[in-house]
Q: What sequence folds into this?
């Protein structure tokens, strides 16, 4: 009957896996169950608090931004302004130097220690030089070439006039009626040699020296007349005292030697006319680049007249005479 005392619904010990001695040993140990496990116990919190890593002892350094390689617009504008100021100072310095040089050139003369050197005459000669001339010192570098060419043209014209006198003398030896041409050739040599120097060479020299609009206009007027004279002399009208082409060609049939001399002189007159036209165009092109004008020439002329000592003396004398006449009339 003992077999019937057992509970038929009870599970056998061999069938319960938790009745295994290995498992029961683990479950009966002091391990805290999973549902009661606390990952942050009090002692652990205190330990973490006590073992906190101390702050770094490295001193604090503020962050520094590296400057960019490209300049800012303000720096570019400042550099441009500084460059403009530097250029302006340089221009002002050059202008002051030019003004100083101009005053020195205007003050040059016998009293400033500069003796006249033209025409180049011996010291023992009773007549002394009348003008001071120095291309490298008084004429700007860009104008020296043209000014020298005009000076050489004047000398070439003087030589041509002298040869024309000799040709007219030979012309006169063939026939006594050509005495008129000889007389006029002497007159042209005596008249045109100094007048051409004073009337168109010295004005253009002064124009290049002082950049005077009035001197430029005076040169253009006189030198245009000189070009016309060169053309007339090259043509060689009869009884005008020039060995031009007409007189030379008419003389070839009578005397070939004299005709050949006159043809040479006619060629020289033609060269004078051609060179003068070329130089006139060159001077005109340089004159247009200087910014001169007719109004500026008028102002220079009026200032020169009113500041002239002769004019002031004459005006003062005329005013005093008029005043005395008015007082006497009263």
A:
């Amino acid at each position: 009957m003992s077999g019937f005392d057992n509970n038929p619904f009870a599970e056998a010990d061999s069938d319960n896996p938790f009745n295994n001695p290995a498992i029961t040993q683990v479950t009966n140990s002091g391990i805290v169950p999973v549902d009661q496990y606390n990952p942050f116990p009090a002692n652990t919190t205190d330990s973490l608090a006590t073992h906190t890593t101390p702050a770094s002892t490295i001193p604090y350094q503020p962050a520094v931004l590296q400057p960019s390689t490209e300049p800012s617009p303000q720096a570019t504008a400042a550099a441009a302004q500084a460059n403009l100021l530097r250029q302006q100072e340089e221009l002002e310095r050059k202008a002051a130097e030019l003004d100083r040089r101009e005053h020195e050139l205007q003050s040059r003369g016998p009293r400033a220690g500069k003796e006249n050197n033209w025409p180049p005459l011996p010291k023992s000669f009773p007549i002394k030089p009348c003008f001071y001339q120095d291309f490298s010192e008084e004429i700007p570098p860009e104008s020296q070439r043209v000014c020298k060419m005009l000076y050489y043209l004047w000398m070439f014209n003087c030589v041509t006039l002298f040869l024309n006198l000799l040709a007219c003398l030979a012309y006169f030896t063939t026939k006594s009626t050509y005495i008129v041409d000889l007389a006029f050739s002497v007159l042209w040599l005596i008249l045109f040699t100094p007048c051409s120097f004073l009337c168109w060479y010295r004005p253009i020299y002064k124009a290049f020296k002082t950049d005077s609009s009035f001197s430029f206009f005076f040169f253009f007027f006189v030198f245009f007349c000189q070009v016309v004279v060169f053309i007339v002399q090259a043509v060689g009208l009869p009884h005008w005292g020039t060995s031009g082409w007409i007189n030379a060609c008419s003389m070839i049939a009578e005397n070939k030697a004299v005709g050949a001399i006159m043809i040479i002189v006619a060629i020289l007159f033609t060269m004078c006319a051609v060179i003068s036209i070329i130089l006139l165009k060159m001077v005109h092109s340089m004159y247009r680049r200087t910014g001169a004008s007719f109004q500026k020439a008028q102002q220079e002329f009026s200032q020169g007249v009113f500041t002239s000592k002769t004019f002031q003396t004459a005006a003062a004398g005329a005013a005093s005479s008029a005043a005395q006449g008015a007082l006497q009339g009263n």
